[in-house]
Design a protein that fits this description.
alpha/beta, single chain, binds pyridoxal-5'-phosphate
């Protein structure tokens, strides 16, 4: 009895999420539900404060520009960076594409990823002409850094690893990864999509070179994400898309560009998205990412224990996963599992989770995945377990 009530009371924020009343939403790793504070900030930005940024001379535009730039500072500050080190992109996917496209190869045409990467951290490198090498995982589903060290050569331009796996929840020892990357002159890019909403991140302490994340997984809006890059590195990157807003001077003969980060933001940006992201950053900071991490870790421990006790359920990933539990009910396709859970008011993701190489590594076609957020509690786990028992009854 003690553990569930502790978890229920640890973060009392469920009432702040209007879209999950009477629903057990366990798909936050796909996209997070939005607290009222974020919804209100977005509404006010459209209904009261809206104007373009960086262009208008009128007061409303100046104040919207200040809000947009304040959001940049907040998003960068959340991960220990400076405002001028943060580029707004459409999401983590676009952020990684930016680096893959804009970073000069400097004679190194290989990238080292791992077997657990999301397709967003594989395909952009392939499209940019890199040879992709993939590091194996440990038995419990972590990126094997000993293997990484052995595989890394002077031909690798970038080591690109997921900070937290979107399938297994495994947490990378990011500082060790940075040391390994730098020992061979490679840069470290971290895909922080699943880490930023779930644990404190400090890019300086890690020694990262690039860090990508999406607002919509951090309780913010879709359509906006962030690329953090070390200031001196960003300064060396040429623009990758052209248009308004990123230039200094345009003639038909030649165009000169703004300094970073402006030179990477062509066209009218997602102004209201930035305001919503700022509200989301304020919201997680008020709760504290340490508290969110402790809360989700306790839920993972409770869920793994509960699913194990049902019997006939295979769990993937390490015990200390960050907020994510992938599983299969033996002999049942995860799509069937997810459909029956849906009938029981429980939303989980089923499929390859945009990580097909990882599915092959695990030797499965797909998994079901329950992922937690600050609003999750023991009632979600109880509903999940009741649903799994129903799956087992139906499939004998
Ligand atoms: C680990 C990881 N990387 C990258 C992405 C891509 O993020 P987005 O679709 O927001 O660009 C996701 C989203 O599922 C993810 O979980």
């Amino acid at each position: 009895m003690n553990a569930p009530s502790r978890i229920n009371s640890a973060l009392d924020v469920r009432d702040q999420f209007p879209a999950i009343a009477n629903w057990h939403y366990l798909d936050s790793a796909a996209t997070a539900q939005k607290p009222q504070a974020v919804i209100d900030a977005i509404t006010a930005a459209y209904a009261r404060d809206y104007a373009t940024v960086h262009r208008g001379v009128y007061e409303r535009s100046a104040s919207m520009t200040a809000s947009y730039e304040a959001a940049r500072g907040a998003a960068s500050g959340l991960i220990g960076g400076q405002p001028n080190e943060l580029v707004f992109a459409r999401g983590a996917t676009e952020a990684i594409n930016l680096v893959a496209r804009a970073l000069p190869k400097d004679g190194r045409s290989r990238v080292l990823v791992s077997q657990l990467e999301h397709h967003s951290n594989i395909v952009p490198w392939q499209l940019a002409g890199y040879e992709v090498d993939a590091v194996s995982l440990t038995d419990d589903g972590r990126i094997d850094l000993t293997a990484a060290e052995a595989m890394l050569t002077g031909e690798h331009r970038v080591v690109a690893f997921g900070h937290v796996s979107n399938v297994l929840g495994s947490i990378l020892d990011a500082k060790a990864a940075a040391e390994i990357a730098h020992s061979k002159g490679a840069l470290l890019l971290l895909d922080g999509c699943q880490a930023v909403p779930r644990m404190p991140v400090d890019v300086a302490a890690i020694g990262a070179d690039f860090y990508a994340f999406s607002a919509h997984k951090l309780y913010g809006p879709t359509g906006i994400g962030c690329l953090w890059g070390r200031a001196e590195l960003l300064a060396t990157l040429p623009p990758w898309q052209g248009g308004g807003g990123m230039i200094e001077k345009v003639t038909f003969e030649e165009t000169t560009f703004l300094d970073a980060p402006g030179r990477f933001e062509a066209g009218t940006p997602h102004i209201v998205g930035a305001v919503g992201l700022h509200a989301a950053v304020d919201w997680v900071e008020a709760l504290s990412l340490d508290a969110i991490h402790a809360h989700e870790s306790a839920l993972v421990a409770e869920a793994r224990a509960a699913l194990s006790s049902v019997g006939g359920v295979t769990l993937y990933g390490p015990e200390d996963s960050a907020g994510i539990v992938s599983f299969n009910v033996d002999g049942v396709h995860p799509h069937d599992t997810a459909t029956i859970l849906d009938d029981a008011g429980v939303a989980v993701r089923a499929g390859h989770h945009c990580a097909q190489p990882l599915m092959r590594w695990l030797g499965v076609e797909a998994t079901a995945r329950a992922s937690f957020a600050a609003h999750s509690d023991s009632s979600d786990i109880a509903a999940l377990v009741r649903g799994i028992e129903q799956v087992k009854r139906i499939f004998g």
